């Protein structure tokens, strides 16, 4: 592990680095911090851009196989946790997948993943209870008198959860009086909705800064995705234009929808194919470049072509942290 560098206010305005962030320990990130987001009455998009500390790192010699690394059966032991594999190098760099089974030297992940030889990190997915501790959101006996969190279900719909004032835990809207089998985890490449039913709330996202990009979904239609970093990621440096369709205007391009404040409204952007190529407002196709517009924590990608994989990159300066 390299030593942590000092983060200046200019380079990470809005992100606060925490002192004493376990420097030099194995399987621990170099930078730990937090950021805040206000959730206003109505629907809010929230992306999770900080994470739990890694529990293991290593290098696969072949697909999902590491014979020289940690014994997965002695590391991945928390039955209440959802473990996520992050592929850092190779043809699948940026991919994130849920681990469903393991032997001492091999992993099985949801959907399969031909990693080949690649560096990897494993960490636990943050849970709704960790993201929204008791008192963060309005709680109640059921969804009718609570704030509600909507998590993408992987099929185009959403699973809905509320914080139960009975069990002091998140429960399914459809099963309000029973505890879930295990804490509800968040698959962080996807963003989520939070429906605030009364007054504005502030959520504090704390954890590990990931210094590499993340593959996010770009299925045909609308995709709710999370920014890969808590601050500094812009339309221009996000690498989204490398995988999304460009054109002379929004009508023949993929479109990025960034929330622009309370009320559920969005500003729309597309990548112009006119030389030299830059992000433009959908309402001003021949106007000024919008490359420096910073991504919100969560946003929509409207994919107007066949489904594809999109690597959402982090700023280059993350690599030096």
Task: Describe it.
By secondary structure, the protein is mainly beta. It has helices spanning 72-75, 128-131; strands spanning 16-17, 32-39, 42-46, 50-51, 54-60, 83-87, 96-102, 107-109, 118-124, 148-152, 158-164, 169-172, 192-196, 201-209, 214-218, 221-226, 255-259, 266-272, 278-281, 298-303, 308-312. The strands form five sheets. It has a five-stranded antiparallel sheet, with no helix packed on it. Strands 5-9-6-7-8 form a five-stranded antiparallel sheet. The longest helix is centred in the N-terminal third of the chain and has 4 residues, at 72-75. Residues 1-13 and 20-29 have low confidence and may be disordered.
Give the uncertain stretches in residue-range form.
Answer: 1-13, 20-29
Strand order of the largest sheet: 3-13-10-11-12
The percent of residues in helical segments reads: under 10%
Sketch the major β-sheet: 5 strands, antiparallel
Mean pLDDT reading: 90
How large a portion of the residues is in β-strands, by DSSP E? 35-45%
C-alpha end-to-end distance: 11 Å
SSE arrangement, N to C: EEEEEHEEEEHEEEEEEEEEEEE
Using only C-alpha atoms, the radius of gyration works out to 20 Å
- Shape verdict: globular
Number of strands: 21
Query: SS-based structural class?
Result: mainly beta
Tally of helical runs = 2
């Amino acid at each position: 592990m390299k030593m942590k560098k000092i983060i200046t206010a200019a380079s990470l305005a809005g992100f606060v680095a925490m002192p004493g962030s376990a420097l030099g320990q194995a399987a621990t990130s170099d930078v730990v911090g937090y950021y805040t987001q206000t959730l206003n009455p109505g629907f809010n998009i929230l992306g999770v851009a900080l994470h739990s500390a890694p529990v293991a790192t290593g290098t696969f010699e072949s697909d999902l196989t590491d014979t020289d690394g940690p014994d997965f059966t002695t590391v991945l032991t928390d039955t209440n946790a959802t473990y996520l594999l992050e592929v850092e190098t190779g043809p699948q760099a940026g991919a994130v997948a849920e681990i469903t089974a393991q032997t001492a030297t091999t992993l099985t992940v949801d959907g399969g993943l031909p990693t080949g030889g690649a560096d990897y990190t494993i960490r636990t997915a943050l849970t709704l209870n960790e993201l929204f501790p008791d008192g963060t959101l309005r709680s109640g006996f059921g969804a009718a008198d609570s704030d509600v969190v909507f998590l993408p279900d992987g099929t185009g719909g959403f699973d809905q959860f509320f914080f139960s004032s009975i069990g002091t835990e998140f429960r399914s809207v459809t099963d309000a009086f029973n505890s879930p089998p295990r804490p509800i985890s968040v698959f962080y490449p996807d963003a989520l909705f939070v429906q605030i039913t009364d007054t504005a709330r502030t959520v504090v996202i704390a954890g590990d800064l990931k210094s590499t990009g993340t593959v996010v979904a770009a299925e045909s239609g609308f995709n709710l995705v999370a920014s890969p970093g808590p601050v500094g990621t812009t339309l221009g440096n996000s690498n989204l234009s490398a995988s999304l369709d460009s054109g002379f205007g929004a009508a023949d391009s993929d479109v990025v929808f960034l929330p622009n404040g309370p009320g559920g409204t969005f500003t729309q952007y597309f990548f112009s194919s006119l030389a030299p190529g830059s992000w433009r407002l959908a309402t001003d196709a021949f106007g000024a470049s919008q490359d420096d517009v910073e991504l919100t924590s969560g946003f929509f990608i409207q994919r107007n072509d066949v489904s594809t994989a999109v690597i959402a990159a982090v700023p280059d300066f993350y690599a030096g942290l």
